[in-house]
Design a protein that fits this description.
Shape: globular
Number of helices: 1
Largest sheet: 33 strands, antiparallel
Low-confidence stretches: none
Number of strands: 33
Strand content: over 45%
Radius of gyration: 33 Å
Mean pLDDT: 90
Oligomer: single chain
């Protein structure tokens, strides 16, 4: 490490100090007829700089859960302690210096009556803020066999500091509710009343009260039709003296007369005295009237307020409709349309649009040949939101289309090929000024050719080859390629040799030539690689892969990757898994190492 420290000190500019972090832990469980206990302990070591002594931080953590059932009585307790220096791996903002404990008691002498109570305490530090919370709950339920059930819930939460914003507060939330449920034939109903009190003591003494009533009705036991309905009324008493209200209505209905047809609808209506009225309608269907035709679709309409220069009511509508035709075993046709737009109700005009359409044709003239064509088109725009009151000026537009031609052939059992030819085009406009109104035009185009061949030379040896050609251009104004103009050719080859049931070896190689026609540079990249798999029944498996990538000329980079994955079944109850990855880069120089291990114990 002394040599590494000398190298680190000789580097100019910014450099990242090497760091290390590992966690070791163990867990256990005890199970008997009267008692169940689960425990965990863990130790963490985080070294912020491997080249400097005294930079280590160590921490400990422990957890214990106990539960027991003694006749009609149930008892549970738990405790958790995480040290201030314990640090989890890959957690950017962990809870630290955690203390948690709690317990509960339940009583159920029979199916008619049950009750339980719990109390929990939690204290921890998160991003420098100390949180301390207490919660208590109590519940009792009466469930007679042929009469409505009755349940009462009580909870009290004491919170210090807001769990979302971290603001300093002292708040107590008390909640009480009573609910009754009853089923008569195929109808099930529920009625629930809730009362909440939010008492804030700091930074100011404030009380907010909530009163809610909820009634729901649903079908039960019907196969071909289902129905659910719900009404919730809420009144709120705020510290300012305001009395806002909220009314919510929900309706869901679906029908499946047989396996070939399905339809459903969902309606929600919200009346909020503070936020206004919102409503949503959702309709979906599926139909297969004959064996050669199938269609399905979904459409959603939402009415709500959006902010422009002024607050405006808009209608957001999205959908998806597809039809699949198979008039012959050798022919398949498919069409898909996905509307997506926002309409300003006051002017009955669109403020946003993003419509996508796709058509697909597959033809199988012979059992070994498939011909395919996919055509996609898209249209979209956004309205300039400062253009009050008409909102007729478009801020930007986008129009795209693409065509994919596919040919798949398998003339022999050991040989198959695939050819893909993709053409893409795009046109855009972006508003520059409003007075006078002017736009900047843009365009893009792409072409890609793929040729793939898969060969099984024998039961133990196979070879896959691939060639890709890609051309991409992008421009603005009258110039079609002043932003992007690249051409690339890629060829790759991979061979797999299954030597035996225990050993498999692979050898791969790739070559890419990329030309940047704007910078007049050419980059060559080679990517050789190899790997193996070792198996020993179901007990041992080891996978290893090594790849090397180097680019020349235009952009010089060099990357080497090693990947090792191993699994060992010590017994039917214990499995050990190890994963190691290392990446070495040059230009710029860097090293990345990731090692993880896991011991799994099945009791």
């Amino acid at each position: 490490m002394a040599g590494a420290a000398d190298i680190r000190s000789s580097l100019s500019g910014e450099a990242t100090d090497p760091a290390g972090h590992y966690i070791a832990g163990a867990d256990g469980a005890f199970v008997s007829e009267a008692l169940t206990a689960n425990g965990e302990v863990a130790y963490s070591n985080n070294n912020l700089n491997l080249l400097q002594s005294g930079s280590e931080e160590t921490g400990k953590a422990a957890k214990l859960d106990i539960s027991s059932q003694l006749g009609p009585f149930g008892i549970k307790a738990f405790g958790k302690r995480v040290g201030a220096k314990f640090l989890s791996i890959a957690d950017a903002a962990p809870k630290q210096d955690v203390t948690e404990y709690g317990g509960g008691l339940s009583f159920r002498p029979g199916p008619l009556f049950g009750a339980q109570g719990n109390h929990n305490y939690e204290k921890y530090t998160l991003t420098g803020v100390v949180y301390e919370n207490r919660s208590s709950t109590a519940k009792a339920g009466l469930t007679p066999e042929r009469f409505p059930s009755l349940e009462y819930d009580y909870s009290k939460n004491d919170e210090s500091n807001d769990p979302v914003t971290g603001d300093t507060i002292t708040r107590t939330i008390t909640r009480q509710s009573a609910e009754t449920q009853y089923r008569l034939g195929f109808l099930s109903s529920a009625l629930k009343a809730t009362k909440e009190e939010w008492l804030s003591r700091s930074p100011s003494a404030e009380v907010t009260n909530y009163d809610r009533v909820n009634f729901g009705l649903a079908t039960a036991g019907l196969e071909k039709i289902t129905f659910t309905g719900n009404v919730e009324l809420e009144n709120r008493a705020e510290p300012s003296g305001d009395r806002p209200y909220r009314k919510t209505y929900n309706l869901n209905l679906s029908a499946t007369p047989n396996k070939s047809y399905f339809v459903s609808t969902s309606i929600e209506y919200l009346d909020d005295s503070a936020q206004g009225i919102k409503n949503s309608t959702d309709i979906s269907y599926r139909a297969e009237p004959a064996g050669f035709i199938r269609t399905e679709g979904k459409y959603v309409i939402q009415s709500l307020k959006e902010d422009f220069v002024t607050s405006e009511t808009v209608s957001k509508q999205t959908g998806s409709f597809a039809i699949d035709l198979r008039p012959h075993n050798a022919l398949r046709l498919k069409y898909l349309i996905k509307p997506n737009f926002t309409k300003l109700v006051r002017t009955n005009s669109l403020t946003f649009n993003n419509e996508q359409q796709q058509g697909e044709i597959n033809l199988i003239p012979f059992s070994e040949v498939l011909l395919g064509l996919i055509y996609k088109v898209g249209h979209g725009f956004n309205i300039y939101r400062q253009d009050a009151p008409d909102y007729s000026i478009k801020d930007n537009t986008t129009d795209t289309d693409s065509t994919l031609y596919t040919v798949k052939m398998a003339p022999f059992r050991i040989f198959s090929t695939e050819f893909n030819y993709l053409l893409e085009n795009g046109l855009t406009t972006q508003r520059i000024t409003s007075e006078p109104l002017s736009y900047l035009n843009g365009s893009s185009a792409g072409k890609q050719i793929n040729a793939i061949a898969r060969t099984s030379l024998s039961e133990r040896f196979s070879v896959d080859t691939r060639y890709t050609y890609q051309r991409s251009i992008q421009g603005t104004g009258e110039t079609t390629a002043n932003l992007l103009n690249t051409t690339s050719h890629t060829a790759s080859l991979k061979g797999i040799w299954n030597v035996s049931d225990a050993w498999s070896f692979s050898l791969s190689g790739g070559y890419t030539r990329t030309t940047d026609n704007l910078l007049s540079t050419v980059t060559y990249t080679v990517t050789p690689g190899w790997g193996f798999i070792f198996r020993q029944g179901d007990r041992v498996r080891v996978d290893f892969d090594h790849t090397y990538s180097k680019s020349y000329d235009g952009a010089a980079t060099e990357v080497t990757n090693y990947s090792l994955r191993g699994k060992y079944s010590v017994s039917d109850y214990v499995n050990v898994t190890l994963r190691a990855q290392r990446e070495i880069g040059a230009l710029p120089d860097y090293r990345l190492t990731d090692i993880t291990g896991n011991i799994e114990i099945n009791l």
